[in-house]
Write a structure and sequence with these properties.
14 strands, alpha/beta, 12 helices, VC0802-like, Rossmann fold, 2 domains, seven-stranded mixed sheet
C-alpha cells in the first residue's frame, strides 16, 4: 500500500549552515521549514521528502523523525521507542540497523541506548505484524537514537550515503572541502550564477563544480541513489517523475565562465578528473598558476576560494604570504569581489583588508570564518 501521509523530517546541516539549508528548503516550497541547532525541520509526504533529498545542496542528510521525548532512564527510552509508529513506515522484512549518539545525557552508554532502542523496535514490529520472527532481509531503514541532554530523538535516514556524496569526487587530495560546505559557500558569496567566477586556489575543484551545478540548475543528487527509493510503501512512480523533472531542469548552457587555478599540478589532475566525472568537461577551465601572478580578463569577476590554512598544511608563514597576495590580486582586477573561507584568526590583518561581511561556520572540525571583500 502506498503511503500518502505527511510526516516530520529534519535536514541535518553543519553548525553555522542551518540558515542556508532553511533558505534552500523555503525555495523548494517547504513553507514550514524551521531552523534549529544542527538542522532544519519540515513536514512533507514521502515524494516531497525525496525531492528534498535530491535538491538540497547544503544538508548532510534527511531524516524521518519517528519519535522525540524526554528520557531520563532506560525504561523511558524503551517506552518512547516502542510507542513510535514504526509499522506505519517499515514493512515486516525491513532491515533495521540502529546507530546511536549521546551528548551530555544521563544515559551515556551509547551501546545500551542502541540495544534498548532495537529491542523496543523489534517488540513493536512483532506486535504490529503478529509474528514471532522478523527476517530483516528487506530494504534498509537506518535507525538512529540521538540523546542530547534529557531529550531523545529517534530517526530513520532516507539517504543511505550522506548527501555530500554526489558521485563525482573519487579522491579528496589534501585538505578537502566537503561538497555540502562548498555549495554553502557558493550561496553565501552572493554570486548569482550569471557572471564569471574563478577560484585561485582551486585544489581538486569542488568549489568550481558546486558553482557550476548551481548555475546550471543541476540537482546535486541527480545521478546517485537513495535508500528510500527501495522502500515499498513509497510511490516509486512519483519518485521517478521527480527525478525526471530534475533532469529536464538541468541546463549546462546556463553556466557562465567558471575557472580555477592552483600552484599544485597533482591537485589540478584530480580537479580535471572530478570535472570530467561530474559531466562538466568543457564547462570549467583549470590551469596551473601562482595566485601572485594571476591576471584574468573580463568584468564582474567573483573570486571564491578555500586557501591553505596553515593548521592543516604545516607552514603558517607560507600561508600568510599567500594571504598578503589577496589584496594585490583584487587591485589587478578592478570591480571584482573576493570570498574566502579561513580558520586563521588574523586573516584580515595579514591580508590588509577589512571584510564587509563575515559568517562563522565549520570546515570539518575547524571553526572558520567566511569573509566577503
Amino acid at each position: 500500500m502506498i503511503d500518502t501521509n505527511t510526516y516530520t523530517f529534519i535536514a541535518t546541516a553543519a553548525a553555522g549552515l542551518e540558515g542556508v539549508t532553511k533558505r534552500e528548503l523555503l525555495h523548494l516550497g517547504f513553507e514550514d521549514a524551521k531552523a534549529e541547532l544542527g538542522g532544519v525541520r519540515f513536514t512533507a509526504t514521502w515524494p516531497e521528502a525525496f525531492r528534498a533529498c535530491l535538491w538540497l545542496s547544503t544538508a548532510d542528510r534527511v531524516l524521518w523523525v519517528a519519535a522525540e521525548g524526554e528520557c531520563r532512564s532506560f525504561e523511558e527510552l524503551f517506552q518512547l521507542a516502542k510507542a513510535a509508529p514504526w509499522s506505519d513506515v517499515l514493512p515486516r522484512d525491513a532491515a533495521m540497523p540502529v546507530s546511536g549518539r549521546c551528548a551530555r545525557s544521563q544515559l551515556m552508554s551509547v551501546r545500551d541506548c542502541q540495544a534498548i532502542t532495537k529491542k523496543a523496535l523489534v517488540e513493536h514490529m512483532r506486535s504490529a505484524y503478529h509474528t514471532a520472527t522478523l527476517p530483516e532481509t528487506g530494504p534498509r531503514y537506518q535507525v538512529d537514537v540521538a540523546l542530547h541532554g534529557d531529550v531523545a530523538r529517534l530517526t530513520v535516514d532516507l539517504c543511505g550515503d550522506a548527501l555530500n556524496r554526489r558521485g563525482y569526487r573519487t579522491w579528496n587530495g589534501e585538505a578537502p572541502l566537503r561538497e555540502t560546505a562548498a555549495a554553502a559557500l557558493v550561496r553565501l558569496s552572493g554570486w548569482r550564477g550569471d557572471t564569471p567566477l574563478h577560484d585561485p586556489c582551486c585544489g581538486t575543484g569542488t568549489l568550481l563544480i558546486e558553482a557550476a551545478f548551481y548555475a546550471a540548475h543541476r540537482a546535486p543528487g541527480l545521478t546517485r541513489a537513495f535508500d528510500m527509493e527501495k522502500w515499498p510503501r513509497v510511490d516509486a512512480n512519483a519518485l521517478r517523475d521527480i527525478r525526471e523533472d530534475a533532469r529536464r531542469q538541468y541546463d549546462p548552457g546556463l553556466i557562465p565562465p567558471i575557472s580555477g587555478s592552483d600552484i599544485d599540478p597533482e591537485a589540478l589532475k584530480l580537479a580535471q578528473r572530478h570535472i570530467r566525472q561530474a559531466g562538466l568537461e568543457g564547462k570549467i577551465k583549470v590551469f596551473q598558476k601562482d595566485l601572485r601572478d594571476l591576471q584574468l580578463d573580463g568584468e564582474n569577476l567573483t573570486f571564491l576560494t578555500n586557501p591553505p590554512y596553515g593548521e592543516r598544511l604545516g607552514d603558517r608563514k607560507q600561508c600568510e604570504s599567500l594571504y598578503k597576495a589577496m589584496k594585490p590580486l583584487m587591485a589587478r582586477h578592478p570591480g571584482c569581489r573576493l570570498n574566502v573561507i579561513t580558520s586563521h584568526p588574523g586573516f584580515e590583518r595579514v591580508a590588509g583588508m577589512k571584510a564587509f561581511k563575515k559568517t562563522r561556520l565549520y570546515n570539518g572540525r575547524l571553526e572558520c570564518a567566511f569573509m566577503r571583500f
